[in-house]
Amino acid sequence: MTPDENTKSRRPERPTMDDSEPETASDEAETAEAFGAVANETRLAILRALWEAEGPQSFSDLRGAVGIRDSGRFNYHLGELVGRFVREVAATEHHDSGYDLTYAGEQVVGAVHSGVYGAEASLDPLEAGPCPECDATLVATYEDETVDVTCEECDITVTQFGAPPTLLGGFDREELPLAFSHWVQSLIERTRRGFCPLCSGRVTPGLARELQETVGLYGARFDCEVCDATVMGALGAVVFDHPAVVQFHADHGVDLREDPLWTVPWLLDEPATVESEDPLRVRLDAEIHGDRLSLTLDESLAVVGVDHEP
């Protein structure tokens, strides 16, 4: 996340890209060829028809679903997709032989449905819960495929992260704050379990000390071994769904499934402390009405200790 120059920012939620290595010429050529293969309305229609079909489709059934009479023309476009986005499948006791989507083909259709390559979407400001600092009402906006949650009273950006336009169309306006929260939590969970949210490559977790210097908080960082992206986020968000954290809040009448994560006070304050360097141990405290839960994290950001001080 890059803080706006005119706004104090406290939450390092948006993935950032650092130290990226350029693709080789062969990688770029192969990528350009792959994108070129689907940069055609007929081929996108083939992928969509296979997405909507129940099981593999024969050549004639698929051609009929797409609506192309010219068999040769259809065969050409289908051939451009077979191997990378479409696979030929043999008959089994459950289905006939035909054509079906590969994982890459499913990803293309999913991206089309998400709206990230379609028309721009925006959202008028809406209330997003109480500010954990001053109890004023937070405001959420959506523009350029980015969610911003801010507090005008504190003059801070509480969180900022990317999200697909489908979120706006899939939920009622009053449901959006929680939907946004669940979306970013799903990204955090995926990254915490070791997968880059950008390319699905393996990530290496670690403590983001640089965030202490820029925004005054220790954060979590995940370095991708495939695309060289560095994803940074709030350290507290990494343990947000830990059983001890969930139970601690439940004991105080707080259901973390029903409240956006940016309304939880200790996530904003994040009083993290480096207790040792070798081995690395970081303590993170959650406090509600004087009741304190302390979590100790290791170098992989795994919880290795829990201490509850009522």
Sequence-ordered SSE layout with sheet pairings:
Elements: E1 8-9, H1 25-38, H2 41-52, H3 59-66, H4 71-81, E2 86-89, E3 98-101, H5 103-114, E4 123-130, E5 137-143, E6 146-151, E7 156-162, H6 166-170, H7 176-192, E8 203-208, H8 210-214, E9 219-224, E10 230-234, H9 235-238, H10 243-251, H11 265-269, E11 273-277, E12 280-288, E13 291-297, E14 303-309
Keywords:
310 residues; alpha+beta; Arc Repressor Mutant, subunit A; 2 domains; 5-stranded mixed β-sheet; 4-stranded antiparallel β-sheet; 11 helices; 27% strand; elongated; disordered N terminus
Would you write up a description of this structure?
With 310 residues, the protein is an alpha+beta fold. It has two domains: 8-22 and 119-309, no CATH class; 40-114, Orthogonal Bundle (Arc Repressor Mutant, subunit A). The protein is 33% helix and 27% strand. The protein has helices at residues 25-38, 41-52, 59-66, 71-81, 103-114, 166-170, 176-192, 210-214, 235-238, 243-251, 265-269; strands spanning 8-9, 86-89, 98-101, 123-130, 137-143, 146-151, 156-162, 203-208, 219-224, 230-234, 273-277, 280-288, 291-297, 303-309. The strands form four sheets. A five-stranded mixed β-sheet has the order 1-7-6-5-4, covered by helices on one side. Strands 11-12-13-14 form a four-stranded antiparallel β-sheet. A three-stranded antiparallel β-sheet has the order 8-9-10. Mean pLDDT is 83; it is low at 1-22.
